[in-house]
Amino acid sequence: MQILNDNVNYKRLVIVAYRLPFTLKRRNNKTTAVQNSGGLVSAILSLTEKMRAKVKDGAFNRTVWVGKGEYSEQEINSVNEVNENFELRPVRINDTINDKFYGGFCNDLIWPLFHYFPSMAVFGEGYFENYQKGNRLFFNELAKIIRPGDFVWIHDYQLFLLPQMLREEFPDVSISFFLHIPFPSYEIFRIMPDGYQIAILKGLLGANLIGFHTHDYAQHFLKSVKRRLGYDVILNTVQADGVFSRADAFPISIDFDKFHDAVNLPETEKYISRIRKQKRDRLLIFSVDRLDYTKGFLNRLAAFELFLERYNNMRGRVVFNMVMVPSRDTIARYQDMKKEIEATVGRINGKYGTLDWNPIIYQYRSLKFHELVALYSQSNVGLLTPLRDGMNLVAKEYVAAQHHPQGMLVLSELAGAAAEMGESILINPTDTSAMADAIYLALNMPPEEKSERIEKMTNRLKEYDVFSWSDDILRSTSKVRDDQRSFRVRQVSKQIEKEIIRSFLQAVNPLLFFDYDGTLVPIREFPELAVPDGHIISITERLSAYTNVVIISGRNKDFLDKWFSYLDLTLIAEHGAFIKNPGKEWEYSLDNGDSWKEVILPVMNRYSSRCKGAFVETKTASLCWHYRNADSDLSTLRALELKNELTELISNMPLQIIDGHKVVEVKRAGYNKGSAARKVFNAEKHDFILAIGDDKTDEELFSALPDNAITIKVGKETTKARYSFTNQSAVIEFLEKLIFSIGKGQKRSSRTME
Ligand code: GDG
Question: Is the pTM of this model over 0.70?
Fold first, then answer.
């Protein structure tokens, strides 16, 4: 798997998350940094280790971690001095700010609201102001360390405002933001005051790339951008004054091998044999979650109770091990919830328990890694039923830890993970009855069926593990920046106009390409109405008398013949299918070659791996990306993105994209405006090339021309051209100036180039 390619070559990775994911320990006068547990941390640590190994000769410096940490300067320095791999940069936030920033705005407002618990959202006084202050403290720390070539990767809802703060100060730095929790639908988002909404959306749009776990979350965000900010969104890309930012789904994953292989480690085996002894011949159901109202503990317990009630033959044969990891339990709301959960566990155990059997083993503690893996591997059912969850990594880890014999996953359809784990038993966590049946089904599923389902999920997890995930984000951020660069077009100012005319006059053998509709003549309602008037005929006549002029159009040859054949110029018809040199007959153009497949195939494969159910078919003369078996919303979007990427990729190739029914096909075309233009400019030496066009097909022309060509787009759309005219009449005004400047210039027949 590729971690970095030539285009994605950052010098430093700067990871910004609310909390520094390390605990500093002091022993024998030495301070060491111990990595905290948690999905995000292991994801990034594994990534950076691989990046270091991949990028040679010190081109990649160490990773910088920026996050809250109340450590002394001395402690931090002693850690940073000895670590080659990483550097810690603590952000110091006093309690007065932090209580309202983190405890207040983040955990009392954003967390419940974004998890669809609006009634629990608190709009406390001073929350937002302190959220701004908190983000500003992160900015201040970053401003001290940002260097050119850094990739800044900001994580999660505590830092919504940071991307824009950075963007204003460092317009050229690469910034990616990743949201670990859901982004809610606009109807939920808009519950917040306008000022908060605008600040959050604009804050995020400071990033080049904004990543979400699912397609739905990304769409919710984009819809909020459209509705609240009124910005244009084209193919997931937000384009507005000073903003060019893309939002997309990058479902976080796990280090698959780590969880899969850990099952066979001696440390894990110790726990496994203990669990086996305790379990005896009983079936084990397992869940592990942080204490939080989003996790749906009470719903889960209600379902387990109903399961015992409904399937009474299972009593005495099943044990549910429910591990609740301590979290925020100094807060009254969490304490109350914990008490209620414990009371429910007690009640169910009291109701069904016997002298030698307790239906529920409840633990309020965190587990050691090997113990966790042992429990994953020994349980017959993983029961993960949050009421809402951004992703839920435990579901993925559970599947990764399944060897033979295998357990089965029961998963909430309201967890982000459900979008990729359709082979699990998906349930709605509020449907107690369906959940009780799902537990029974999972416990009694035939081994072959379990194996088939687990294998499908396993393959997907192996294919798209945490390294592919982070690679995808890095790569996509680069792509957004490339696209942004190619869309930065300068208007033709008076000064630029003068310079173009000066170099045109100095040139010995200039070559001018003009598109026809929308460039030489205005776009009319019907093409037959768009005929050249006397003025435009006279302009082309005078220009072609002075130099080489090419009219390059989608019009057919008859039309171009009718109006221009008597002039001394080159005509290109049907987007490059036919070329007619001055005084010659029309020629049909076609290039040869088959090496294009090596370029197109990896792109299509990449899209298949990001769109479950899509596949590539290789034919002799074409490659097809089929998406009829994939989720319809996501695949339609991916197909559009693929077409977009392919359009750019093939602009210099003799290929054509065909948009079929649930298939994107790329086939040999043999011609386009670019390949036709190349034939013309390769035939002679030219020291000045100018091309003007308004259409999407003119982009092929712009890309095909040499770098020093002057390319001008008519209109405001994004383009590959270097410059732009606002409208078609600006083209005519410019051509009039060109003709005026020629004045008594020499006829081209009297000039030659060395
Ligand atoms: C956010 C989002 C999203 C848990 N208990 C123990 C333990 N863990 C480890 C698991 C897993 C991680 O912690 C928890 O995963 P979650 O997916 O629940 O993630 P969070 O960090 O809580 O939250 C969530 C996630 O970010 C990633 O984007 O999925 O939706 O809320 O890796 O293994 N590890 C050990 N003992 C435990 O007791 N050793």
Answer: yes
